[in-house]
Each structure stands twice: as C-alpha cells, then as structure tokens.
Amino acid sequence: MLQKANAFMKQANLIDGAWVDADSGATIDVINPANGQKLGTVPKSGKAETARAIDAAHKAFQTFRKTTANERSKMLRKLHDVIMDNQLALAELLTLEQGKSMAESKGEIAFSAAYVLWFAEEARRTYGDVVPSPWADRRVIVTREPVGPIAAITPWNFPSSMLARKIGPAIAAGCTSVVKPASQTPYSGLAWGALAEEAGIPKGVINVVTGSASEIGDELCYNPLIKKITFTGSTEVGKMLMEKAAKTVKKVSMELGGNAPFLVFDDADIDRAVEGAIAAKYRNSGQTCVCTNRFFVQAGVHDEFVEKLAKASNNLKVGPGTEDGVQQGPLIDEKAVEKVEEFIADATANGGKVVTGGHRHALGGSFFEPTVISGATPKMKFMKEEIFGPLAPVFRFEKEEEAVALANDTEFGLACYFYTSDLGRAFRVMEGLKYGMVGVNEGIITTPEAPFGGVKESGLGREGGHQGIEDYLDTKYVCIGGLGL
Ligand code: NAP
C-alpha cells in the first residue's frame, strides 16, 4: 500500500511551478481516519504564500489566456489520460486520507477524469453570438473571454472530484487558478498539482496552497487579482465567502449543503427503491451533500420499506476502506460520530425507534453502524439539519401533497429523489419539488454531462453540463460601427 501513491503524495505547496514549504515552516498533520495514524504533513501556509500563488496565477494568465481552445482541449485530454493511468495510486491516497472504500475511491478518480474529459470537449464550444444589428452600418458581436485567475476552495468528502469540476472548466475557459483543498484531505488536492505537471500544463496555471483556512480564504476573497471564487462546502462558510467576495465584486459559485428528501409512494417498485435508498444514503458513509437526509414513505408501503431498508443496511460491510469488499468506511473524525449520536439521541427522545444500528461500530475509532430510525417527525433535528453520516430516518405520510410539502420544508434545495410508477404523479412531484436536481426512480444521478447544483441556500451556479463553464467566462459585447454600409 502507498508505494505507488507516494509519487502523488506531495507534502509541499505548488506555487509558480515550485514545490515549497510554508514561510514559517509550520505544518498540519494529516490523519488516516481508519486507524488514527499520521500519514504525513502539509504546509500550514497563510496570507503571504497565498498572495504569491495569486501573483503566479495572474502572471501565468497573461499567456494562458492567449492559448487556443484546441490547445487547452489537448492539455485536458492529456490530464485525463494521466489521471486514468494512475487511477489506483490516486485512489489509494484518497482512501488513506479520507476513509472511503477503494471501490468508491477508484470511482471518484474515474469521475474526476470524466469531468476533465467533458471540459476538454466543452473548451471548444464556448460560442459567442453575432446578433442581427438594429443599425445598418454597425455590427453586433458577443464574445466569451476567460474571467481571469480564479480561486477554488474544496471540502474533504470528495477531495479529488470537487476539484475536477473547478480545475476542468477553468483550464477549458483559459483561466488560471489558486486552489485550497480541505485540511483533512489535502493530498488528493495537492495531487492535482503533480498531475498537471505530468500533463505538461504550464507552470503557474494551477497553484495549490494548504493551511489556515481563514488566512488563505481572506486573501483569495480580498485580493483584486482573483476574479472568481468557486467554493464547495458548508452553507455557513459559503455565505461568509460571498460577503467577503462582495468587497471586490467577484463572481461566485457556491456548491453548499443539502437536506435531500427521498419519497417512496405506494405505487413504487419497493425493491428498486430500497436499492436506490442504500446508494443514496450510505455512499461515502453518508457524507455527501446529495445523500438522503430524510426518507418519506407512504403508509401503504411504509412497513415493508422499513423492514427491507433495515435488512439491506444491516448487510453493509463496514471496515477500513482498504479492505476488500468493504462498503462503508469510517466517518471523517470523532466530531462527525458525535454529531450522528446527537441526531439519534434527539430522535429517540422524541419518540423515534432505532430499527437497526444506532451505535458506534465494534471496530471502534470513527466507524459507525448503518442505522435506520422509524417514527421520524418534523420536530426532530434531522428535519432541518444535514446529518452527514450513516443514519436513515423514515417519516410516514398519507397524501402526495403532504409529502411534497414536507420535502420542501427546508432552506436547502440541492438533490431530491422519489419513487413511483405513476407517470402523472412523476411529473406532478418532479415539478412540485423545489430542488436543483431530481432523481426519479434513481438514487445516484450525478454525471459530468448534467448540471450539478442547488437552489435556495444550497448554492449558486452549476458544475458539469454545458452550464459548468459559464461562470469561468465573461461576456463581451462588441459594437463595430462606421461601416458605411
Ligand atoms: P466546510 O467546513 O465549509 O469546509 C470546506 C472548505 O472550506 C475547506 O477547504 C475548509 O478549509 C474551507 N474553509 C473553512 N473555513 C473557511 C474560511 N473561514 N475561509 C475560507 N475557507 C474556509 O465544509 P466541510 O465540512 O469540509 O464539507 C462538508 C459540507 O460541504 C457539507 O455541508 C456538504 O453538504 C457540503 N458539500 C457540498 C457539495 C455540493 O456540491 N453542493 C459537495 C460536497 C460537500 P479547512 O479544511 O482548512 O477548514
């Protein structure tokens, strides 16, 4: 283990093509959540290092913006190939620092590569317009230009693919970047620097800094050379970044928290719904922004669904992500475990019943049993708050309108799912749910071809799809007059 991954396990920051330590020499420890052991360190950089990374991105932008779409497309294709050539090594690194199973890590790395390939294709399609002119002697042209150096801040739950959705469109559009990965999972982020080097992407186009979130974040927000902030993480931090970015009127795109509902109607295929529920709940040990937070099940199928969901949850193999066949790894840290315990205590104090699980796993550390709670009610904490753990609360409902109203009763609006075999109901419910993404009879819906993102307090902008490059481009209107026509 880790022999191949060593090549990508960079314990330094990439600034202007050089791997460097923090000015102070300070470091942050990186811990393997499966066993609590230290994997290594990364620099604890701050304002000064970030300012230098921004200067490097600004300098690189002066030439990078002049590259052709075809050249950038080729760079991204090469980057895709380098990622896939090293899929296993990158997946091992990801599992070691994040905890998810090797199957999920390999999937995430392939997903990163798929986003890069998608944006290699989109790079060549950033069309403008030639608009019919209202003046006989003038022509009206609209072009698209890269916004400039961008800043990307990403979370620990998808430390590779969340950067793919930002670095991919940035390069495609002709932007340079300064990226800051999460402190708990910095190696998968730093690996993008090593991958970019191997793919021949010019120095300064991608800069990676790790360290103090507030110092780095403030410099990225306040420095006028940065033209756009793209953030994936909690709604709380996202709101703060939006306020700070307002000082220099930067573009912002925000992929924030979710509170996904999963509705099962009487006419649903229950086995299919349970299969979807397991995927939509326990992926990454429940630590994804699109993980189901609340199950709403119609009275006629409620008991059958709960029984089958509990059985399937109980069958999940829990263990270190590096072990064969493991389906659920540890949670990211002790705090995450305590949060799940609080949700369970709150639910049981208010009449909820633990059907399966409910405790820390016998493996110890931050492993937790896949848990199903029935008798959930809107008074319980998970009605409003993101669980981010392997806990599936099931609410019972009678009427379609009631379920849609409950599903919408949240400030979040990222992903939602529902299961029905009635076509009319499928359209009614799909149109009634106030969410950015809807899975109908599907529990896993993310793909590079489709726009990922939320409404309400789940964020702004979209990643993936043809929409995913929009935020990296400025629109320029050119009026050419005096043509004497
Ligand atoms: P988080 O605490 O908001 O952290 C995310 C990133 O923001 C990390 O890199 C963190 O750095 C940084 N950060 C923290 N405080 C900051 C500050 N004051 N200024 C600048 N940066 C700062 O979120 P998380 O706990 O890592 O991730 C879980 C959240 O992400 C959940 O709410 C989840 O729903 C959301 N998420 C959303 C999506 C989506 O696409 N919508 C996808 C995945 C996750 P440090 O690590 O150094 O603290």
Biggest sheet: strand arrangement = 14-15-16-13-12-17-18
Number of distinct beta strands: 20
Secondary structure tally, helices = 13
Low-confidence stretches: none
Write down the overall mean pLDDT. 97
Structural class: alpha/beta
Distance between the termini: 71 Å
Which helices and strands, and how do they pair?
Blueprint: E1 13-15, E2 18-20, E3 27-31, E4 38-43, H1 47-64, H2 69-85, H3 87-98, H4 102-122, E5 129-131, E6 139-146, E7 150-153, H5 161-173, E8 177-180, H6 186-198, E9 206-208, H7 213-222, E10 228-232, H8 235-245, E11 251-255, E12 260-264, H9 270-282, E13 292-298, H10 299-314, H11 334-349, E14 353-356, E15 371-374, E16 391-397, H12 400-408, E17 415-419, H13 423-432, E18 437-440, E19 459-460, E20 473-480
Parallel strand pairs: 7-8, 7-10, 8-9, 10-11, 12-13, 12-17, 13-16, 15-16, 17-18
Antiparallel strand pairs: 1-2, 3-4, 5-6, 6-20, 11-19, 14-15
Helix pairs in contact: 1-7, 2-4, 2-5, 3-4, 3-6, 4-5, 9-10
Bound molecules: NADP nicotinamide-adenine-dinucleotide phosphate (NAP).
Keyword list:
485 residues, single chain, 20 strands, alpha/beta, seven-stranded mixed sheet, 13 helices, six-stranded mixed sheet, 37% helix, binds NADP nicotinamide-adenine-dinucleotide phosphate, globular
